[in-house]
Amino acid sequence: KTKEIENALIEEMERYAENLQFEEAAKIRDKLKLLNDFSERQKIISNDFIDRDVIGFAISHKVACTLIFKIRDGKLLGKRHYIIPDIKNLSEAEIIQYTVEKWYRETTYIPQELFLPTEVEHTDFLIDWLLQVYNIHPKILVPKSGERRKLVNLANANAEYLLKEYLLAYAKREQVIPKSVYSLQRDLRL
Prior knowledge:
About 55% of the residues lie in helices and about 20% in strands.
């Protein structure tokens, strides 16, 4: 909500200037500059300035990665991902539902909209649960095309990248040392 903070700071700076307290007004001006610098670094990815969470996911080798983009006022403020190591016979919809429930148990802010990559069987349950716990009724959408679908595709691509990183790190940890290295160790008496 940087616009609200910016407006409040401007009013405060003007009050100080009217009262000829220029040093205090200068301090507020410096705070405004910092706020503007911070705002410019945030990536604007939506022009409608609606708060929303965008869910993405990827599956490989019975491991899933789900990712949540936190978009506030059209700006990407952050992301959170979950690695689900053993998905067994879970469907995509069940994985997404698990992620949504886990995420909204951890966070305290529920946005106006929630974009999902695929249909979830129990959206009524999710809406009722969010309404009961937070007294908020977000729109749950599965975008099919346009800018909204591009956001979901971006979240899916990020989830896929994180999953590949996880699988690569796991493979490095579990890598078996070849027999020839043991033979070399024995021959060199190391």
